[in-house]
What we know:
two-stranded antiparallel ribbon; 4% strand; elongated; 160 residues; mainly alpha
Amino acid sequence: MGERDSKMDVFQLSTLLSETCAAITHILDEAGKSFSGDPEEFVGKNYGSLGAVIACYSNLFKLSQCKTRTDLETFWAGCFSDPIVRDAVDELLLVEEKWDQFLQTVDTFMDKTLYSRNQVIGVDEIASLALVNTTDNTSSTMKQLINNQPAVFVFLRHFA
């Protein structure tokens, strides 16, 4: 793990982990309600709401002064003798498991309902893929977004 500017005590670490869990749980709860209410609408319009989890992890890494998941795990492992840290880590791992289960549920719905498993998606289909900006709800296509320029996309997926 790289040098950390300051030492976070076990209480601060456990609090940070618990706050991260609470934020992710809230996002999952809202997504679960939306998905169970109307799965097609969730997949079509609200799937991007899951991107808020990126900010949760960004905050966790920034405040813990860890650059990678391995750094974070090494950091919390050094504090594992304290039960409040162990409990907070267990809580985070449980939330991540719930995250994976939710995404698997959505994937299963999409496989069964929206797409054929044997469907081949070509360049035209990808270029016309509709995207929604979750901050202002504006829509655009992939083609409009990249404007024929090289682009890198990060897709939020399962933890496992």
